C-alpha cells in the first residue's frame, strides 16, 4: 500500500469515520483501491492524464457518467484531478475463459451492443474520437523519438497499419469503449457491468468487436457468431474482411501501447512480456488475414 495514496484517499470528503482501504489488483493504467466506511463501499481510481496514451481523465469521467446513465456502468460518486470514485460492484471479474463460454459470450456481446447504442446519447460535452490507426501512428512517433528498443520494427508495422486501414472501410460509427479486456466486465450475480472508460470515444464498432475477440482468444466460429448476433443479420464476405482488418488493428494498437508503456509507465507490470505476447498474436492474425485475401 502506497502511504501517500492511502493518506490522500482517507482525506477525501466522502467517508463516515475512518475508511478501510485495500488494493485492487489488475490495473495497468491506474491504481485502484477498494474503500469501505460504515455506509458504503467504493472504488477509488488514481491516475492523471497520460498524454502518450491520449488519456484524458475528464473524458473518462464524462464517459463513466454517460455509461451509468445508459445502465452500463456503476455510478460516479466523486471526482477531482487525479481521482475518480465509483460505486463498488460486489461481483465476479470475468476472465477470458468466461468470455469464451457460450453462457457469457451472448450476454457480453448484448451488453457491448447496448453500450454502443445508448452511451453516446448521455455523453455531455465535447467527445473524443478514438481512431486506432491514428493512435498507431502517434505511438510509432513516440517510440522513434525515444529510441525505443522496438524502433527497428516500426516502419514495417506502419506499412501494415496503413494497409489495414485501407481494408477496414467503409465504417459505421458508435460510441466505443475501446478496451474490452475480460477484466473490464463484472458479474454481480444478476447482470453484467462494463467498467473502465479511459479510452472511450467514437469509433467503428468493429474495433470493439475485434478487440473483444482478440483479447479473449475467440475461435473463428465464435467470431462469425459474434458478428451475426451483434449486427442481427447474416455475415457476408465484406463485413468479415473489414472485421478481420480491425481485429488486426486492435492487436497492433495494443502491441504499441505496451511498447510505449515499457518506456513511460511506473506501474509494476511485465510490459515487455505483454508486448511480446501481443506482437505474436498480431503477427499470427495478420498472416491469417493476408492468407484469406489471397
From TrEMBL:
A Pfam family cross-referenced in the UniProt record is Choline_kinase
Is Transferase tagged as a keyword? Answer: yes
> Mind telling me which CDD domains this protein's record contains?
ChoK-like (cd05151)
Tell me which InterPro entries the record gives.
Answer: Kinase-like_dom_sf
Cite the entry's keywords alphabetically: Kinase, Transferase
User: What domain of life does the UniProt record list for this protein's source?
Assistant: Bacteria
Entry's Gene Ontology BP terms: phosphatidylethanolamine biosynthetic process
Query: Which molecular function terms from Gene Ontology are attached?
Result: ethanolamine kinase activity
Q: Name one GO cellular component term.
A: cytoplasm
Report what the protein is called: Thiamin kinase-like enzyme
Provide the species name. Rhizobium subbaraonis
Amino acid at each position: 500500500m502506497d502511504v501517500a495514496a492511502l493518506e490522500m484517499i482517507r482525506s477525501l470528503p466522502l467517508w463516515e469515520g475512518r475508511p478501510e482501504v485495500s488494493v485492487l489488483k489488475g490495473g495497468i493504467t491506474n491504481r485502484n483501491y477498494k474503500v469501505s466506511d460504515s455506509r458504503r463501499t467504493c472504488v477509488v481510481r488514481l491516475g492523471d492524464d497520460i498524454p502518450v496514451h491520449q488519456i484524458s481523465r475528464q473524458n473518462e469521467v464524462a464517459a463513466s457518467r454517460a455509461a451509468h446513465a445508459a445502465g452500463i456502468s456503476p455510478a460516479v460518486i466523486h471526482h477531482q484531478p487525479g481521482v475518480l470514485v465509483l460505486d463498488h460492484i460486489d461481483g465476479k471479474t470475468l476472465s477470458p475463459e468466461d468470455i469464451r463460454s457460450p453462457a457469457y459470450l451472448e450476454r457480453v456481446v448484448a451488453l457491448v451492443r447496448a453500450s454502443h447504442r445508448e452511451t453516446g446519447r448521455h455523453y455531455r460535452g465535447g467527445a473524443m474520437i478514438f481512431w486506432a490507426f491514428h493512435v498507431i501512428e502517434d505511438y510509432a512517433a513516440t517510440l522513434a523519438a525515444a529510441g525505443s528498443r522496438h524502433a527497428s520494427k516500426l516502419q514495417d508495422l506502419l506499412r501494415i497499419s496503413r494497409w489495414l486501414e485501407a481494408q477496414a472501410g467503409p465504417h459505421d460509427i458508435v460510441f466505443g469503449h475501446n478496451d474490452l479486456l475480460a477484466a473490464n466486465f463484472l458479474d454481480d450475480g444478476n447482470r453484467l457491468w462494463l467498467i473502465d472508460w479511459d479510452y472511450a470515444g467514437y469509433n467503428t464498432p468493429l474495433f470493439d468487436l475485434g478487440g473483444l475477440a482478440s483479447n479473449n482468444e475467440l475461435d473463428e466460429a465464435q467470431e462469425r457468431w459474434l458478428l451475426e448476433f451483434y449486427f442481427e443479420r447474416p455475415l457476408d464476405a465484406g463485413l468479415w474482411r473489414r472485421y478481420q482488418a480491425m481485429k488486426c488493428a486492435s492487436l497492433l494498437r495494443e502491441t504499441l501501447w505496451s511498447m510505449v508503456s515499457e518506456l513511460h509507465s511506473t506501474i509494476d507490470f511485465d510490459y515487455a512480456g505483454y508486448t511480446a505476447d501481443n506482437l505474436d498474436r498480431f503477427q499470427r492474425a495478420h498472416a491469417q488475414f493476408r492468407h484469406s485475401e489471397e
